[in-house]
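Feature request, filed as a ticket because there's no other form

It would be nice if the structure record came with a short human-readable summary line next to the tokens. Right now we just get the raw output. Example of a typical job, pasted below so the devs can see what we mean:
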Amino acid sequence: MTKILLILLSLVSLLLFMSGCSSSNHPSPGNMAALSANEKTEEIDSPVDLLREEKILSLDPENISARDVMEILSRSPAPQIINLNGSLPVVKMDSFSRFLILMGYPDKKILNPEDKSYSYSSHVSSEKLAGIIAWYYERDGLKPMLIGHSQGGMMVVKILHEFDGAFHDTLHVYNPFTGLKEERNTITAPLSGRVQPVSGLTVGFASAIGTGTFMRLLLGQWNMISRLRKIPDTADEFTGYHIPYDIIGSDLPSFGPRKQYEPTGSVPVRNVTLPSSYSHISVILTDHLAENLPARQWIENYLPESRNSALPAVPEEELKNIYFAADIWYQIKKNWSVQLQQMILEKREQKAIY
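Raw output as currently delivered:
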């Protein structure tokens, strides 16, 4: 049995290496100015806040247009997005981060300030990542979003269980700029001013891409095998992305049907099956789509119920991973606008109280 596992691990490592070599075929975005933009995100309480607040409240979160992103969302506060890499850093989440930035998400809200990269290692402890999330929420008043690929997806789910009290009774705040633990296990709620523990916090949107229990077995991540498909109420929304015949992201050594993610409480959970032609390794390579005008327009107009609408008439290679990119961008836009609306309404409620 040990020899079989070693052979399988070698095969997986070879697949990762080969895919990583080919991933360089995707050029970095030509519009690199978007990645270096340092414009300060306007605060919601600026002199024009009332007009902008009304525009935000008028948005339909389930139908956010490209104009809504450009004229309203991109000029408003945004939740921090933490993109978590897989176990081997051959293909990182950087391409996906560039895709989000080119689509209109503020680059500062994706940047990892500790090392100035656009992704996070999935080898960092879930305890530390939970503490970083608490730090961002206390500062921004918006719940961070968690998106993970392969082992990064496992870490996303583990963080949700961390907040739910599965691994530690007490969680501390961690500073994302220094990576250091702070000597406090509470934060001050941004609007109400109430002190609340880090344990029990929730994230806005969470997602796992190509994450299976088989690799948890191979890598000895025993405490997540029974929890991987169980999503607690420490996320406002969760989406799991599955790829048929994905050996690396499979659930059992038999590579049988994947188990579906399911809520342990009331959190909305979606399971999305991507085309079988998609690759476990390259599914997150998406920045090329934001620079292809027909592909970008299709993504901007995407609604989950319209997934089967005709794709743009461009070469198939130029549309690689478009279903994944469109669906997760839809979820991010939706959660972004919902959180802003909730923040505005809560702020107004607090003003009415005092």
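Something like this underneath would help us a lot:
The first helix runs from residue 2 to 22.
The mean pLDDT is 85.
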